[in-house]
Amino acid sequence: MYRFLLSRQWVITTLVALLLIPTMIRLGIWQMHRHDERAARNDLVAEALAADPVPVRRLTSPGHTVTTEERYRTVTAKGHFDTDDEVVVRRRTNGNDEIGYHVLTPFVLADGKVLLVNRGWIPSDPASQSAFPEIPAPPRGETTVRGRLMPDETTEASGIKDIEGLPDRQIMLIDSEREAERLDAEVLGGYVVQTAPEPAGGTPQQLGNPGRENAALNLAYAIQWWLFAAGVPIGWIVLVRRESRDRTAAAETDEREPTESEPATV
User: What angle is formed at CA 42 by the lines to CA 37 and CA 45, rounded to 5 degrees?
Assistant: First the structure.
Protein backbone atom coordinates (compact mmCIF):
# COMPACT_ATOMS: atom_id res chain seq x y z
CA MET A 1 0.00 0.00 0.00
CA TYR A 2 2.84 2.37 0.81
CA ARG A 3 5.34 1.27 -1.82
CA PHE A 4 4.91 4.69 -3.47
CA LEU A 5 7.02 6.14 -0.62
CA LEU A 6 10.05 4.65 -2.40
CA SER A 7 9.40 6.74 -5.49
CA ARG A 8 11.76 9.63 -6.31
CA GLN A 9 9.10 12.27 -5.60
CA TRP A 10 8.24 10.91 -2.16
CA VAL A 11 11.86 10.29 -1.14
CA ILE A 12 12.62 13.97 -1.87
CA THR A 13 9.47 15.12 -0.05
CA THR A 14 10.39 13.05 3.02
CA LEU A 15 13.99 14.32 3.08
CA VAL A 16 12.80 17.94 2.84
CA ALA A 17 10.40 17.34 5.74
CA LEU A 18 13.19 15.78 7.83
CA LEU A 19 15.40 18.83 7.17
CA LEU A 20 12.66 21.33 7.95
CA ILE A 21 11.91 19.94 11.41
CA PRO A 22 15.35 20.57 13.06
CA THR A 23 15.74 23.86 11.15
CA MET A 24 12.48 25.20 12.54
CA ILE A 25 13.32 23.96 16.03
CA ARG A 26 16.67 25.79 15.89
CA LEU A 27 14.98 28.97 14.68
CA GLY A 28 12.61 28.75 17.63
CA ILE A 29 15.54 28.31 20.03
CA TRP A 30 17.28 31.35 18.46
CA GLN A 31 14.14 33.44 18.95
CA MET A 32 14.01 32.33 22.60
CA HIS A 33 17.61 33.48 23.05
CA ARG A 34 16.64 36.84 21.54
CA HIS A 35 13.69 36.99 23.95
CA ASP A 36 15.94 36.31 26.95
CA GLU A 37 18.49 38.91 25.83
CA ARG A 38 15.84 41.59 25.32
CA ALA A 39 14.11 40.76 28.60
CA ALA A 40 17.45 40.98 30.43
CA ARG A 41 18.20 44.37 28.83
CA ASN A 42 14.75 45.63 29.79
CA ASP A 43 15.38 44.58 33.38
CA LEU A 44 18.76 46.34 33.43
CA VAL A 45 17.27 49.54 32.03
CA ALA A 46 14.39 49.47 34.51
CA GLU A 47 16.78 48.90 37.43
CA ALA A 48 19.10 51.69 36.25
CA LEU A 49 16.28 54.21 35.84
CA ALA A 50 14.85 53.32 39.25
CA ALA A 51 18.19 53.62 41.08
CA ASP A 52 18.90 56.66 43.24
CA PRO A 53 21.05 59.40 41.65
CA VAL A 54 24.77 59.26 42.42
CA PRO A 55 27.63 61.68 41.73
CA VAL A 56 28.97 61.07 38.24
CA ARG A 57 32.53 60.57 39.51
CA ARG A 58 31.41 57.38 41.29
CA LEU A 59 30.65 55.70 37.98
CA THR A 60 33.05 57.15 35.44
CA SER A 61 36.44 58.77 35.07
CA PRO A 62 38.73 59.82 32.20
CA GLY A 63 39.25 56.85 29.89
CA HIS A 64 36.53 54.80 31.56
CA THR A 65 34.24 52.64 29.41
CA VAL A 66 30.65 52.82 30.66
CA THR A 67 29.41 49.28 31.26
CA THR A 68 26.00 47.78 30.54
CA GLU A 69 25.16 47.93 34.26
CA GLU A 70 26.14 51.62 34.45
CA ARG A 71 24.22 52.64 31.35
CA TYR A 72 21.09 54.73 32.07
CA ARG A 73 22.08 55.28 35.72
CA THR A 74 21.02 58.71 36.94
CA VAL A 75 24.03 60.82 37.90
CA THR A 76 24.60 64.35 39.14
CA ALA A 77 27.44 66.80 38.63
CA LYS A 78 28.26 70.32 39.77
CA GLY A 79 30.15 72.75 37.55
CA HIS A 80 29.56 75.14 34.67
CA PHE A 81 28.80 74.81 30.96
CA ASP A 82 31.44 75.78 28.40
CA THR A 83 29.46 76.93 25.37
CA ASP A 84 32.58 78.14 23.53
CA ASP A 85 33.51 74.51 22.82
CA GLU A 86 29.95 73.31 22.22
CA VAL A 87 29.33 71.00 19.23
CA VAL A 88 26.27 69.51 17.57
CA VAL A 89 25.73 65.86 16.66
CA ARG A 90 24.30 65.51 13.16
CA ARG A 91 21.38 63.49 11.82
CA ARG A 92 19.50 62.95 15.05
CA THR A 93 15.71 62.68 15.24
CA ASN A 94 13.14 63.68 17.81
CA GLY A 95 9.93 61.88 18.78
CA ASN A 96 8.28 62.96 15.51
CA ASP A 97 11.14 61.63 13.34
CA GLU A 98 12.20 65.16 12.42
CA ILE A 99 15.90 65.38 11.60
CA GLY A 100 18.06 67.79 13.55
CA TYR A 101 20.98 67.92 15.96
CA HIS A 102 21.83 66.86 19.48
CA VAL A 103 23.56 69.62 21.42
CA LEU A 104 26.73 68.38 23.13
CA THR A 105 28.12 70.85 25.65
CA PRO A 106 31.27 70.39 27.77
CA PHE A 107 30.47 70.68 31.48
CA VAL A 108 33.55 71.71 33.47
CA LEU A 109 33.76 70.24 36.98
CA ALA A 110 35.41 71.90 39.97
CA ASP A 111 38.70 70.04 39.42
CA GLY A 112 38.87 71.05 35.75
CA LYS A 113 37.83 67.68 34.34
CA VAL A 114 35.09 67.73 31.70
CA LEU A 115 31.80 65.88 31.51
CA LEU A 116 30.08 65.74 28.12
CA VAL A 117 26.41 66.68 28.44
CA ASN A 118 23.84 66.02 25.73
CA ARG A 119 21.45 68.90 26.38
CA GLY A 120 18.82 67.69 23.90
CA TRP A 121 17.53 68.05 20.34
CA ILE A 122 17.17 71.10 18.12
CA PRO A 123 15.88 71.24 14.51
CA SER A 124 18.28 71.70 11.64
CA ASP A 125 18.06 74.49 9.10
CA PRO A 126 16.90 72.96 5.78
CA ALA A 127 18.59 75.78 3.90
CA SER A 128 22.04 75.12 5.32
CA GLN A 129 23.55 71.95 6.73
CA SER A 130 27.01 73.47 7.08
CA ALA A 131 26.34 76.59 9.15
CA PHE A 132 26.51 76.18 12.91
CA PRO A 133 22.93 76.44 14.22
CA GLU A 134 21.67 78.87 16.81
CA ILE A 135 21.54 77.08 20.15
CA PRO A 136 19.67 78.25 23.25
CA ALA A 137 22.13 78.98 26.02
CA PRO A 138 22.34 76.79 29.14
CA PRO A 139 22.20 78.24 32.68
CA ARG A 140 25.08 80.57 33.48
CA GLY A 141 27.47 80.13 36.36
CA GLU A 142 27.74 77.16 38.69
CA THR A 143 24.98 74.65 38.04
CA THR A 144 24.06 71.17 39.17
CA VAL A 145 22.97 68.92 36.32
CA ARG A 146 21.31 65.55 36.44
CA GLY A 147 21.00 63.01 33.68
CA ARG A 148 21.37 59.46 32.42
CA LEU A 149 24.88 58.12 31.98
CA MET A 150 25.54 56.69 28.51
CA PRO A 151 28.51 54.92 26.89
CA ASP A 152 30.48 56.41 24.03
CA GLU A 153 28.80 55.92 20.67
CA THR A 154 30.26 53.61 18.03
CA THR A 155 29.30 52.82 14.46
CA GLU A 156 28.87 49.14 15.38
CA ALA A 157 26.37 49.87 18.15
CA SER A 158 24.49 52.78 16.55
CA GLY A 159 24.70 52.03 12.84
CA ILE A 160 25.79 55.65 12.24
CA LYS A 161 28.81 56.12 9.99
CA ASP A 162 31.54 58.43 11.26
CA ILE A 163 31.96 60.79 8.31
CA GLU A 164 35.12 62.86 7.96
CA GLY A 165 35.37 66.40 6.63
CA LEU A 166 32.29 67.71 8.45
CA PRO A 167 31.69 71.43 8.95
CA ASP A 168 33.34 73.04 11.95
CA ARG A 169 31.88 72.05 15.36
CA GLN A 170 29.77 69.23 13.91
CA ILE A 171 30.27 65.54 14.71
CA MET A 172 28.53 62.26 13.90
CA LEU A 173 29.24 60.23 17.06
CA ILE A 174 29.77 61.14 20.69
CA ASP A 175 33.23 59.86 21.60
CA SER A 176 34.77 61.04 24.88
CA GLU A 177 38.35 60.17 23.83
CA ARG A 178 38.05 62.15 20.62
CA GLU A 179 36.51 65.07 22.49
CA ALA A 180 39.36 64.94 25.01
CA GLU A 181 41.81 65.46 22.12
CA ARG A 182 39.72 68.30 20.69
CA LEU A 183 39.34 70.06 24.04
CA ASP A 184 42.87 69.22 25.23
CA ALA A 185 41.37 68.27 28.59
CA GLU A 186 40.63 65.26 30.76
CA VAL A 187 37.15 64.09 29.74
CA LEU A 188 35.11 61.58 31.71
CA GLY A 189 34.28 58.42 29.80
CA GLY A 190 30.84 58.33 28.18
CA TYR A 191 28.42 61.21 28.33
CA VAL A 192 25.25 62.30 30.14
CA VAL A 193 21.80 62.84 28.67
CA GLN A 194 20.53 65.83 30.64
CA THR A 195 17.20 65.52 32.44
CA ALA A 196 17.52 68.49 34.85
CA PRO A 197 17.44 71.41 35.00
CA GLU A 198 14.83 71.75 32.29
CA PRO A 199 15.80 74.25 29.57
CA ALA A 200 14.11 77.61 29.44
CA GLY A 201 11.35 77.64 26.84
CA GLY A 202 11.58 73.88 26.36
CA THR A 203 14.55 74.04 23.99
CA PRO A 204 16.75 72.15 23.40
CA GLN A 205 14.11 69.44 23.52
CA GLN A 206 15.23 66.99 26.18
CA LEU A 207 15.45 63.35 25.23
CA GLY A 208 12.86 60.97 26.64
CA ASN A 209 13.47 57.77 28.59
CA PRO A 210 14.56 54.75 26.56
CA GLY A 211 11.70 52.55 25.41
CA ARG A 212 11.31 48.90 26.32
CA GLU A 213 12.31 46.33 23.73
CA ASN A 214 9.48 44.07 22.57
CA ALA A 215 10.69 40.76 24.02
CA ALA A 216 7.19 39.25 23.80
CA LEU A 217 7.40 39.40 20.00
CA ASN A 218 10.41 37.07 20.01
CA LEU A 219 8.56 34.67 22.31
CA ALA A 220 5.65 34.62 19.87
CA TYR A 221 8.03 33.92 16.98
CA ALA A 222 9.64 31.05 18.90
CA ILE A 223 6.27 29.42 19.56
CA GLN A 224 5.33 29.95 15.92
CA TRP A 225 8.46 28.18 14.67
CA TRP A 226 7.89 25.24 17.03
CA LEU A 227 4.28 24.94 15.86
CA PHE A 228 5.54 24.88 12.29
CA ALA A 229 8.00 22.11 13.26
CA ALA A 230 5.18 20.10 14.82
CA GLY A 231 3.03 20.69 11.76
CA VAL A 232 5.57 19.22 9.32
CA PRO A 233 5.17 15.53 10.35
CA ILE A 234 1.42 16.00 10.69
CA GLY A 235 1.26 17.43 7.18
CA TRP A 236 3.48 14.61 5.89
CA ILE A 237 1.14 11.97 7.38
CA VAL A 238 -1.91 13.72 5.89
CA LEU A 239 -0.31 13.74 2.44
CA VAL A 240 0.70 10.08 2.70
CA ARG A 241 -2.80 9.00 3.67
CA ARG A 242 -4.34 11.07 0.91
CA GLU A 243 -1.96 9.55 -1.64
CA SER A 244 -2.76 6.06 -0.34
CA ARG A 245 -6.52 6.67 -0.57
CA ASP A 246 -6.19 8.05 -4.09
CA ARG A 247 -4.13 5.07 -5.21
CA THR A 248 -6.52 2.58 -3.60
CA ALA A 249 -9.53 4.28 -5.20
CA ALA A 250 -7.81 4.24 -8.59
CA ALA A 251 -7.00 0.53 -8.25
CA GLU A 252 -10.59 -0.35 -7.31
CA THR A 253 -11.87 1.62 -10.31
CA ASP A 254 -9.52 -0.26 -12.62
CA GLU A 255 -10.76 -3.59 -11.23
CA ARG A 256 -14.42 -2.68 -11.86
CA GLU A 257 -13.85 -1.58 -15.45
CA PRO A 258 -14.41 -4.43 -18.06
CA THR A 259 -11.42 -5.55 -20.06
CA GLU A 260 -11.45 -5.46 -23.89
CA SER A 261 -11.94 -9.25 -24.07
CA GLU A 262 -14.93 -9.27 -21.76
CA PRO A 263 -18.29 -7.98 -23.05
CA ALA A 264 -20.00 -5.39 -20.91
CA THR A 265 -22.98 -6.69 -18.94
CA VAL A 266 -26.34 -5.49 -20.32
Answer: 125
Is 112 found in the same domain as 226?
Answer: no
pTM: 0.76
**Contact call for residues 121 and 92 (beta carbons, < 8 A):** yes
Q: Are 108 and 183 in contact (CB under 8 A)?
A: no
Q: Which domain holds residue 189?
A: 73-202
How do residues 116-148 score in pLDDT, each as one tens digit?
999 999 998 776 777 888 999 999 999 999 999
Clarify whether residues 112 and 195 are in a common domain. yes
Alpha helices (H) along the chain: 8-50, 155-158, 176-183, 215-256
**CB contact set of 49 (below 8 Å; sequence gap of 6+):** 72, 74, 148, 209
pLDDT at 212: 84
Residue 198 has pLDDT above 60, yes or no: yes
Say whether both 225 and 121 belong to one domain. Answer: no
